[in-house]
Amino acid sequence: MKFWTRFKRILKNSVITGIPQIIATRSNFRKKLKLLVFIGCVIGFFWQTFAFLKVYWTYPTVVDVQYYFPDDFELPAMSVCSSNGIKSKLFCQRFSELCYPNTSLVEFCDTHAFYCDPNNNNPGNVSYPTVTSRQLPPLPRSEYQAMGAQPNDLVSNCLIYESPKIIDCT
């Protein structure tokens, strides 16, 4: 009996909400009713906790995958850069006084290897401009564009391989 008396005293001083009220109640009916409500709340707490943890541990994710295969599509942009802004052949045909003829291609390639083909495939009697890009004569932009590298000079062939067909993009 000493155990139950001590156990009731511990429960009366308990910090768990509801336990001291249940123990302090004198009517057996009210005590059982409060105990039943308390047990129902504890069972509901554990039930919701385990239901939540079950969903949490399964780690559900929502993935919406849609496949779309268009018949036609817009090609991406392509940028091609060239360090040769003006073709020397066209420039020297128009401004021969600003170019010098190069009859000795070997001598020229020794001093200006950047302009020469490493395989020595250069034609004879090639003219090269003697001015820098800042010393060019004042011309409208359209004329310099006409003397410059054209898109077909930079990209000679462009194909897109899309199974089962090949698309020409030049």
Automatic annotation (TrEMBL):
The chain crosses the membrane at residues 35-57. Pfam families: ASC. Keywords: Ion channel, Ion transport, Membrane, Sodium, Sodium channel, Sodium transport, Transmembrane, Transmembrane helix, Transport. Its main location: membrane. GO terms for cellular component: membrane. It is found in: Membrane. This is Sodium channel protein.
